Amino acid sequence: MSQRTKTIATALACCIFAAAWIALAAPIHAQSDVEQTRRNALVRAIERAAPSVVSINVVVQRRSTPFDTDFWDFFYMPTPRYQKIESVGSGFLFDADGHIITNYHVIEGADAIDSITLPDGRRLEAEFVGADKRTDIAVLRAIGEDLPSVPFGDSDDLIIGEWVIAIGNPFGGLIRDPEPSASVGVVSANHRRLSQSIGRGERLYQDMIQTDAAINPGNSGGPLVNANGAVVGVNTMIVSPSGGNVGLGFAIPINRVRRVAQEIIEYGRRRDGWPGFRVEDIADLPPHLLQSQGITASAGCVVVNILRDSPAHRAGLQPGDVITAINGQPVQSAFDIDYVIWDSFVGDRVTLEVERNGRKRTIGFIIEEVAQ
Length: 372
What we know:
By secondary structure, the protein is of the alpha+beta class. It has 7 helices and 21 strands.
């Protein structure tokens, strides 16, 4: 065989080897690419947050009705009978001390917290730390070791359209395993103000995060996390004419939740802020009364009562003043003022824009705690 023939044969063999190697390697690279696509940011976010999500098992003792009595109770003095009713909600561990955040309505009316169940199957005892009904937040504390906690995000930094994940235990009474469920959606809107009728005037469902991630019964109290696996809200409710999920879910922003939780842990409760005045809507007052008081403003609220030595009184607020804005937000009704006061904490500063005798002025004061 000539040298030229040997060279050609060697080159051909190399080409065949290279083609075979590429053919074998291509599926490996393709498989690797698929695997990387599967383990995307949302998958990693769920893996980061899910271990800290817990099932909260509560018990309510309901007294039996006369129709629930035993046959022999008709012949002897019946003794009170009680039926044990169990329900399940969600929550999440947020610090190394075992503190758990959930919605107040998850445990409202419960006679006992039966247990806390972690995704790894551990059932832990828990104690009630405190709650704030107005913001629908409660704090529990689990008793255990090596408890995983979830990182916090910044709910003031949310972007409309960014991915979020609702993690919790929907229909926990029907699904009898501790692994939480995850549903994916986007931030549909932010800073939503819901109607007072939803909270029946007792709860502050304002400045809410709206999401189309599926939230169902049992999800309440679980975390809404961003694509980094950090909690940005607490899943709280859905608005639905049918009772099922229609893509209108709402979560309490985590920045507010953290402040409420810190108050509860430190003081055992959310301290009540006290401005010390009461108002009426201008729209609800008769024109002749407004005219007699020299009130010319067309919108806002009139101060009708103020307590002496209250923070607002010491700052110079007077009866007859018309509040037109609070903390830079226009005031159309008393609810606008209530919202800011309810959302303020002891030590926060409140600034009022008022009209008095046709002149505008600014009055500021610090929220103080209501005397116990």
